[in-house]
Amino acid sequence: MTDQKTATASTSVSAQTDQTLSGAEMVIRALVDQGVEVMFGYPGGAVLPIYDALFQDNETFGPRLRHILVRHEQGAAHAAEGYARSTGKPGVVLVTSGPGATNVVTGIVDALMDSIPMVVLTGQVPTHLIGTDAFQEADTVGITRSCTKHNYLVKDIRDLPRILHEAFHIATSGRPGPVLIDIPKDVQFARGRYEGPDEVIFGHGYNPRTKGDPGRIAEAARLIAGARRPIFYTGGGVINAGPEASTLLRQLAAMTGAPVTSTLMGLGAFPAADPAWLGMLGMHGTFEANNAMHDCDVMVCVGARFDDRVTGRLDAFSPGSKKIHIDIDASSINKNVRVDVGIVGDAGSVLADLIEAWKAGGHEPNRQALDDWWRQIDNWRARQCLSYRTGDKVIKPQQAIERLYALTKDRDTYITTEVGQHQMWAAQFYRFQEPNRWMTSGGLGTMGYGLPAAVGVQLAHPGSLVIDIAGEASIQMMTQELSTAVQYDLPVKVFILNNEWMGMVRQWQQLLHGERYSHSYSASLPDFVKLAEAYGAVGIRCSDPAELDAKILEMIDSPRPVIFDCRVEKSENCLPMIPSGKAHNEMILPDDARDIGSIIGESGRGLV
Amino acid sequence: MAQPTPPASAYDLAHKTEVESLATFALLVDNEAGVLHRVVGLFAARGYNIESLTVAETDRRAHTSRITVVTRGAPHVLDQIEAQLQKVVSVRRVQDVTRDPNGVERELALVKVRGTGGDRVEALRVSDIFRAKVIDTTSESFVFEITGAPTKIDSFVELMRPLGLVELSRTGVLSIERGPEAM
Predict the structure, then answer these.
(1) How far is CA A221 from CA A356, A357, A526, in A?
(2) Structure confidence at residue A4 as a pLDDT band (50, 70, 90)
(3) Which chain A positions have a beta carbon within 8 Å of B33's beta carbon?
(4) How far B82 CA sits from the closest chain A CA (Å)?
């Protein structure tokens, strides 16, 4: 490998490459060469050389590479995720060895589950101390091997430039994901020859396939054209494929006349204002989306992975349909649900080819059958599965989201969430029209995701309105990141639906565990207004429906970070719901939710 | 998939009637620290069985090793294992040897048999039939070296058991494809 590198020594990069760099300087140089503008991190003993190189780079070149000091390493990872999801660029994290690395693990798994491009740099004890249980030593590559797309321990300075650039390539291509580089302190001090992104020779046979098979795409076009009850089931893959993919999805849906539903991760790829939009599907999806999934005859899954939250009971999942599955990850196809036409490729590329194949085949949708299909869908819509009752005494959580949407929809708004009931209500009631506007922890379901993610989003979009829709329990897992927001003048808004309960846990205990509310009440809640003020942010409280709009506007118009303590109905359940172990056409709707506990069978109780 | 998929009804899926079979995967991997853990960890994390595993560097210049792993599962599980293995960045190539009609599988075993008198004579006679080699002997024991398909080794071991089998060491399966093409 070394011989090859010498052979490719290039003069194409500026004169700086002629001189040797320290490993720490190479890290900074590689980040700049990769176009990184912002990274999130926390210093410590094993990364001090990199922080020193960063300091010197900023002295020399100004803040071409900004470092955002978080308050906990997990926050750095989530901030990087928020940055990545809202921009399409990789998020970068820099943390120290030992606890720095272990604290970042939750964020790495989160990024792996939701296919977020992320490069994590961790310091490590010097190579001669590895294996001696040295201070702040942890087997970081061992710990993260199964939760990264790929990871490296750099033992030789000669490998560092290649690994740095390779990490970005792997993180951002194919199915995106987190890549970790563990750099021992002696390697950070060692000097060597730096090589730019175009000079290095990758050491792996990694070469993901992005172009779909033309034969299968043509077959898919034929299947869709022959459909009487087609549906598009789209996911985060459409968002990851870039904004063009969302445009192509809109075109294809219009051409085929088929309705569109989406997973939690895919919200925004298709505009909620479009008449063909059915809302989210799955456990807390709409009645119309889930029934249409159950009764369709041709299902086109684009960039989604038949997650258990989506399919419900697998052996009753859309029993009568032919299934087309477009996914960049070959292992997603036929993993949970067997499909008829599997197409491995990038969602954008395959959608473009599918549109071409549709035109080339001279296909036309079956208008008459589609009319019947839409009539059926309208019947399901008429059930108004998201309906809820409001009163003049208490704010309903759904109402709070609807008002938030109404008052922010004409602005340049980005939404992040924590995990739980508030997240599902946000998904149901906030109507996304564009991709990259919705950041949530889908696969891993990480409470504490939303505030740091909002910090990352706000950094990428300084003039935009960034709101973390939160619960009073989730927010306490990462409250400290408010300090980061204040330090960097990031006016993120934390909109807490405060019902004093871990609402989703309470709901499941009500449904499945005989209303025995074991440890789900949030006792000793902080005064969120004072908490905000203690951090130097603005605190707002609202419990009166009549004041809701005015206070939301006060929050939006504040130029500073805000915690909004929205006191809502305490016992509201998140509905509709497909209970565990049930099929898509066995939903609980708000108007028949009297005796929910009896609906879930013994086997369903064992499921999650 | 070996056969065209039947009309897609997901109702077929959860039925546990699918027959499990043994499968041998040959992997060409980058020879670097932790690569075996990536493969083994994948099996452990996703609940797949490993029946046998062999690994050694096979090309020093290209820095590649070959891993041969024998596993068991229903056809769609085996497809999933293959797809998951292909996702590992350090894995260069995956071959399903079992489903390849040109696949050849061999295993080597060292078998220690202890006995005297008639049993000892019989052990030597059987080893001759199986073309096993005697690589060590004392007045009351033999160590045999035997090579062949895993089933052949199984039969040999069963025959040695009543004759005083005391210890067995197997390499696990190795595989290669017949014909001039390389993996």
Answers:
(1) 9, 6, 56
(2) very low
(3) 153
(4) 8
Dihedral, CA of residue A459, residue A104, residue A129 and residue A132, to nearest 10? 170
Among the listed residues A31, A38, A28, A35, the one whose alpha carbon sits nearest the alpha carbon of residue A458 = A38
Residue A530 in tokens: 């004072």
Scanning the structure block, which residue is given the tokens 């702040």?
A: A136
Q: Which of A306-310, A354-358, A442-446, A448-452 has the lowest mean pLDDT?
A: A306-310
What pLDDT is stored for residue A594 in this prediction? 55
Per mean pLDDT, which of A288-302, A510-524, B87-101 is the most reliable?
Answer: A288-302
How many percent of chain A have pLDDT more than 70?
Answer: 94
How close is the nearest chain A Cα to the Cα of B31, in Å? 11
Q: How confident is the model at residue A295 (pLDDT cuts 50, 70, 90)?
A: very high
Tens of pLDDT along A170-209? 999 999 999 999 999 999 999 999 999 999 999 888 999 9
Closest by CA position to A176, among listed A185, A184, A187, A168: A168
Per-residue pLDDT of A376-401, as tens digits, reads 999 999 999 999 999 999 999 999 99
Tell if the CB–CB gap between A329 and B5 is shorter than 8 Å: no
Across the interface, whether the CB atoms of B89 and A150 are under 8 A apart is answered yes
A583 to chain B: which residues are within 8 Å by CB?
A: none
pLDDT of residue A355 exceeding 90, the answer is: yes
Whether residues A146 and B45 touch (CB distance < 8 A) is answered with yes
The residues, any chain, with a CB within 8 Å of residue A220's CB and separated by 6 or more, are: A300, A324, A326, A341, A343, A354, A357
A169 pLDDT higher than 50: yes
For A433, the 3-state DSSP assignment is: coil
Q: Classify A208 as helix, strand or coil.
A: coil
Q: What's the alpha-carbon Rg for chain A, to the nearest Å?
A: 25
Residue located via tokens 């409001």: A390
pTM for the predicted model, two decimal places: 0.93
| Model confidence at A337: pLDDT above 90 | yes
pLDDT at A7 over 50: no
Q: Are A486 and A514 in contact (CB under 8 A)?
A: no
Task: Tell me the longest C-alpha to C-alpha distance in chain B.
Answer: 66
Q: Which residues of A are catalytic?
A: 73, 135-136, 185, 504
Say how many C-beta atoms besides its own lie within 10 A of residue B144's C-beta. Answer: 22
Return d(Cα B79, Cα B75) in angstroms, integer: 6
Chain B residues with CB-CB distance to A under 8 A?
1, 5, 7-15, 30, 33-34, 37-38, 41-42, 45, 63, 76, 79-80, 83-84, 86-87, 89-90, 92-93
- CB contacts, 8 Å: A315 with chain B: 10-15
- Which regions of A437-534 does DSSP assign to beta strands (E)? 438-439, 465-471, 493-498
**Residue entry with tokens 């349909």:** A321
* Residues of chain B with C-beta less than 8 angstroms from the C-beta of A152: none
- Torsion, CA A372, CA A375, CA A376, CA A377, rounded to 10: 120
Structure confidence at residue A14 (pLDDT):
45
Q: What sections of A241-366 are H helices per DSSP?
A: 243-256, 287-295, 308-311, 347-360
Please, which residues have CB within 8 angstroms of residue A131's CB and are 6 or more apart in sequence? none
Is the CB of residue B124 less than 8 Å from the CB of residue B142?
Answer: yes
Secondary structure (3-state) at B64:
strand
**Which ipTM was obtained for this model?**
0.88
What does the alpha-carbon distance between residue A499 and residue A521 come to, in Å, rounded to a whole number?
9
